[in-house]
Amino acid sequence: MPEWLLEWIRCPQTGERLRLADRELMANVNRLAQDGKLFDTMGRTISPFSSQGLINENGNWLYRIDDETPSLLADEAINLKLTDLRKA
After folding, report:
1. What is the mean pLDDT of the chain?
2. CB of 73 within 8 A of CB of 12?
3. Which one of 17, 41, 67, 69 has the fewest CB atoms closer than 10 angstroms to its CB?
4. Can you say how many angstroms the Cα of residue 9 is from the centroid of all Cα atoms in its chain?
5. 35 pLDDT exceeds 60?
């Protein structure tokens, strides 16, 4: 994802800036997805995705990136406050 794009896009939930999620977070998120324990805001199960994601400034919302294209739909966001990454 181009760095300049991060200057323009915002979290659809909060309006905050987004940054790339770190590798450790993405590994934990994908482990939960593999186990069928990861859900979007609509309650749908999320399958594992690429090693990249975007996270908002307060660290509560994660958005997937597939094929270098971010999915910034509020319905597809992952609420990290409701996701127990410690058990991943």
Report:
1. 90
2. yes
3. 67
4. 14
5. yes
| Residues facing 18 on adjacent strands | 56
* Phi, psi (rounded to 5 degrees) for 66: -125, 130
Cβ neighbours for 3, distance < 8 A, ≥ 6 positions apart: none
Give the integer Cα–Cα distance in Å for 62 and 82.
12
Full DSSP string of 45-77 = B-----S-EEEETTS-EEEEEETTEE---GGG-
- Note the pTM of the prediction, 2 decimals: 0.88
In eight-state DSSP terms, residue 17 is: B
d(CA 50, CA 3): 18
Name the residue among 74, 80, 73, 54 with its Cα closest to residue 65. 54
Q: Could you say which DSSP state residue 12 is in? A: T
pLDDT at 87: 52
For tokens 């300049």, what's the residue?
Answer: 4
